[in-house]
Specification:
With about 800 residues, the chain is an alpha+beta fold. Helix content is about 35%, strand content about 15%. The chain has 23 helices and 25 strands. Strands 1-2-4-3-5-6-9-10-11 form a 9-stranded mixed sheet, sandwiched between helices. A 5-stranded antiparallel sheet has the order 13-12-25-24-23, sandwiched between helices. It is elongated and about 105 Å long. The N terminus is likely disordered.
């Protein structure tokens, strides 16, 4: 596993105390580190053998990168980069990888674990050819493998510290580090081998663990022989498909060519400037490349160079992939850990039989995971009992794992999740390679992991997608951190349709949120109304720049509001100056008392025009629902039919929007729907904070044509796609709809006629409207080139963070779909 398991195998151990200022350290002398960077270093004194605390001592070298935000600091985050191996210097560059919010919340601590680096390193005197952690097949077959294993064990037998390198002792060292730092509890983030260390620490010191994030997980019941076998069998087999797809090759054909090349190199090794390239080296090359998609090109180059017997190119690629080993300490230390941790059979025949079975079923690795290891001849037996997960304790564990990890498989993560029970949640990542949180590049996993470390938010078990992963993470953030009961999204782009959901649709029953649930879309109704008005303009039945007075004589004549001064265009563009009407439902105790009240459009307008106008018509933008109630009344006056009937006949039926309705006085939502929620403050007023209540039931005549529609995310996408594609309006009216004025609704936004233009962070723009009302907030976006997204959360009035999160999610989705 050394130089292969540690390439991208990152374990981060996070030690966090209560949210107090940085604690004074106990007995540590901090000074400069033996590497460049902003960290400081110290040595923690520990016993070699914890059974004999007065005996030989070791110095565990520790580095720390302090948080600069004492107001945000939670505690200490101890990092272990997997391996096992030395990690003292990780703090030199970790600030370039760890999110800013995590750096603010924690002091980052790393250390060289005992037996490695500066912490009492062990060396068996192993030659480079003896430093393979996995027993890759040798040309001499099983006798040569057995001889190699025995020779290595004999070389390590003279190392007196070997029996004490086991992970249980490393966990004890972590607790000594915790105590020396003056922390009451520690959080732990471990990757690869570090997950096993995390399991050990939590099991041995359960009251000392605050939050634990384990990335790329080891199944402790399988460590280590079972781990090796699973990696070298199902792990490599699953991941090899990604490599074949990268090359655009038929998998079976590529495997045949690869194995033929392995056989030829075993028969005639290739001399290179770095050493003899054998079939084992080619197997190492393949395995190393499977850790990250970015190394696939190197593996492809190696296959070509080896096939062509290009010695210089082979050596160059081999150096980059770590095929040539030359670190006695790393190799010796790893053997010390693995042999001290696991109970390995002493029966050579067992290894030979299992390796033969694996080689037949999984020829890519030739039985490497099952072949005999030096632990079969080790001079000492394990001191500690095997490590097991502790299912009792706080629910404070998050597991993250790529679905196609060749080293620590998703199956191992699933097994660990079962062992922890309700203490843990598992986030699978639809990705190949090793490491998922900090180093995997999946925005969904990164967002969830960061929310867990900084806020303690854990989602239910889920899978982060590879496509539009950032949006999936945004939804989990909205429900897990920002408190929305449910969130969902639908994206459409050139690759197809993707739907995501998070949280629950019904807090009472716990039914999961679904992207196809009906919801109230409120002010998106305005875009429907504007579209019908512009269709009537195209039919010469309405004139945009004609005063409202022509169609609705006397309606607006009150306290400075006059229909002779306000045009249809100004209504649709919110430049009429008309004030908004009020609603008793938002007053003290208003929702339970007035949720079923019936409102007529005349009553709504009459209430509005009793107030002073907001500005001279045509001079300023003021968003008010009154404008669209009046627009709906104009539709009814001109057509002689209900405005809802016109929308149904002109938009919903032609586009097949079967899940969209304009319910009139119906207070309940039809069909399968998500329930909406709001809060009541101390005065019983609807608010964004306070006691949460269900506000699903509501008479939508409260806003009438300004926001009564019920729809789905799919129908919203269908509508906006058709609108921007010119299927609902002739070119002239479509151009009028997109003539905008500056609007203060969203930074950089401009409002047209029922349609808003918003800039994208990645360049370009999208068109939208959005809707917010009791219980629901929807946001959508559509670009001229066909990218679309619609998003809903089931809470409103929304907090500023929730509203900002919705806008960020729309931007994220549209930029990712480019």
């Amino acid at each position: 596993m050394r130089k292969i398991f540690t390439v991208l195998a990152v374990a981060v151990s996070a030690a966090a105390a209560l949210p107090v200022p940085a604690a004074a350290t106990v007995g540590l002398s901090w000074g400069d580190c033996p590497f460049e960077g902003p960290a400081e270093c110290a040595i923690v004194d520990v016993p070699l053998d914890y059974r004999n605390p007065g005996g030989e001592r070791l110095g565990v070298h520790v580095s720390r990168l302090r948080s600069t935000r004492l107001d945000l600091r939670r505690g200490v985050l101890v990092m272990n980069q997997g391996g096992p191996g030395p990690h003292l210097a990780d703090t030199a560059t970790i600030h370039e990888l760890v999110p800013r919010s995590v750096l603010d919340a924690y002091d980052i601590v790393s250390f060289d674990q005992r037996g490695f680096g500066a912490s009492a390193p062990v060396r068996c005197g192993l030659e480079p050819s003896e430093q393979f952690t996995f027993p890759w097949p040798l040309p001499g077959g099983e006798p040569a493998m057995r001889q190699r294993a025995r020779r290595i064990a004999q070389k390590c037998a003279g190392q007196a510290r070997m029996p004490f390198l086991g992970t249980a002792n490393v966990a004890r060292d972590v607790d000594r580090i915790r105590a020396a730092l003056g922390e009451e509890r520690v959080s732990f983030l471990g990757v690869s081998y570090g997950t096993y260390l995390g399991v050990a620490y939590d099991s041995m010191f359960p009251r000392r663990v605050d939050r634990m994030l384990l990335d790329s997980n080891v199944d402790p019941t399988a460590a280590w022989r079972g781990t090796f076998r699973e990696s070298m069998t199902t792990g490599v087999e699953v991941r090899f498909g990604d490599f074949a797809a990268f090359l655009g090759r038929d998998r079976a054909e590529l495997q045949h060519e690869y194995l033929d090349l392995v056989r030829r190199l075993d028969q005639a090794p290739l001399p290179t400037p770095s050493g003899m390239l054998t079939g084992s080296h080619l197997r190492i090359t393949l395995f190393a490349s499977l850790y990250d998609d970015d190394t696939f090109p190197l593996a492809a180059r190696m296959l070509v160079a080896a096939r062509d017997r290009d010695a210089a190119a082979t050596a160059e690629v081999g150096d980059q992939l770590g095929v040539w080993y030359d670190d006695d300490n790393d190799a010796s230390g790893e053997l010390g850990v693995f042999c001290a941790d696991g109970t390995f059979s002493r029966n050579a025949a067992t290894y030979a039989a299992q390796a033969a079975v694996d080689a037949r079923r999984y020829p890519l690795t030739g039985g490497a995971g099952a072949a005999i290891v030096p632990c079969a001849f080790w001079a000492s037996d394990p001191i500690d009992q095997p490590i097991r997960a502790n299912p009792r304790g706080r629910s404070n564990i998050l597991l993250v794992n790529n679905l196609r990890d060749p080293a620590t498989t998703h199956g191992a993560a699933t097994a660990l999740r079962r062992q922890y029970g309700d203490r843990a949640r598992l986030v699978g990542v639809d990705k190949g390679g090793h490491a998922a949180y900090l180093f995997g590049g999946n925005a969904c996993a990164q967002r969830i992991g960061t929310d867990f470390l900084t806020r303690g938010a854990r989602p239910p078990d889920l899978t982060c997608p590879s496509r539009h992963a950032a949006l999936a993470g945004d939804l989990e953030h909205l429900t897990g951190v920002e408190g929305a009961p449910g969130a969902a999204a639908e994206i459409r782009d050139s690759a197809g349709v993707v739907r995501f959901q998070s949280g629950v649709a019904d807090l009472a029953t716990g039914r999961p949120m679904l992207a196809g649930d009906r919801v109230r879309v409120f002010s998106n109704t305005k875009t429907f109304v504007a579209t019908v008005v512009l269709q009537l303009v195209a039919e010469r039945r309405v004139e945009l720049d004609t005063p409202v007075e022509r169609y609705l004589p006397g309606l607006l004549r009150a306290t400075g509001n006059d229909g002779r001064d306000i045009t249809i265009r100004q209504l649709l563009q919110h430049t009429s100056g008309l004030p908004d009407f009020d609603s008793a439902v938002f007053g003290p105790g208003g929702y339970p008392r007035h949720r079923f009240d019936h409102h007529t459009p005349d009553e709504l307008v009459a209430d509005a025009v009793t107030r002073p106008r907001l500005s001279v018509p045509g001079t300023e933008f003021h968003y008010t629902t009154t404008n669209y109630v009046v627009a709906g009344m104009i539709i009814e006056k001109v057509t002689g039919r209900p405005y809802a009937t016109e929308i149904e006949n002109r938009i919903l039926r032609p586009l097949g929007m079967r899940d969209t309705t304009l319910p009139g006085d119906r207070a309940t939502l039809p069909g399968r729907h998500a329930r909406g929620y709001a809060h009541l403050d101390g005065d019983g007023r609807i608010s964004d904070t306070g006691r949460r209540i269900d506000v699903t039931v509501l008479n939508p005549s409260l806003v009438w044509a300004g926001g009564e529609a019920v729809s789905t995310l799919s129908d919203l996408n269908t509508f906006f796609a058709a609108l921007l594609a010119g299927r609902l309006l002739p070119p002239a009216q479509s151009a009028e709809m997109r003539r905008t004025v500056p609007a203060d609704l969203i930074p950089g936004a401009a409002y047209g006629l029922g349609l808003m233009r918003v800039p994208l962070s990645c360049g370009g723009e999208y068109w939208t409207h959005g809707g917010s009302g009791l219980g629901y907030q929807t946001r959508e976006g559509a670009t001229a080139d066909g990218r679309q997204v619609s998003i809903v959360i089931t809470t409103s009035p929304a907090t500023r963070a929730q509203s900002d999160g919705m806008l960020e999610a729309v931007d994220t989705a549209l930029c990712a779909a480019r």
